[in-house]
Input
Amino acid sequence: MADQPRLRKPDTRTALAELLSQMRATFPLDAPDSRLCNLDCNGCSKKLLEFLEMQIEDWERRLGEGETPTFGDLEKLGRMARKIHRALVRNGVLSPDRNPEARS
Output
């Protein structure tokens, strides 16, 4: 039996960069207000997306400056993205199948 190369998990900088990329692809950060706001709202979609975009931009800046995130940073950002995703699904901004991460 031939030895198979072991797949290495990415370091935290790479993992966070991939997470940020997934978040930018999943969330409608540039959506017009008319798409985000409706009368049946459970948490302001516009404010949630503005907050999420600030977090993404902050981490992109920090990665650019050479900062190395911890596993806790990854978990915190992922957990926040899942919560915002659920709120946007409840508000009808996203469909349930558009998930930023495999687990929910």
User: Anything to note?
Assistant: The chain has four helices and no strands. The radius of gyration is 16 Å. The mean pLDDT is 84. The first helix runs from residue 12 to 26.
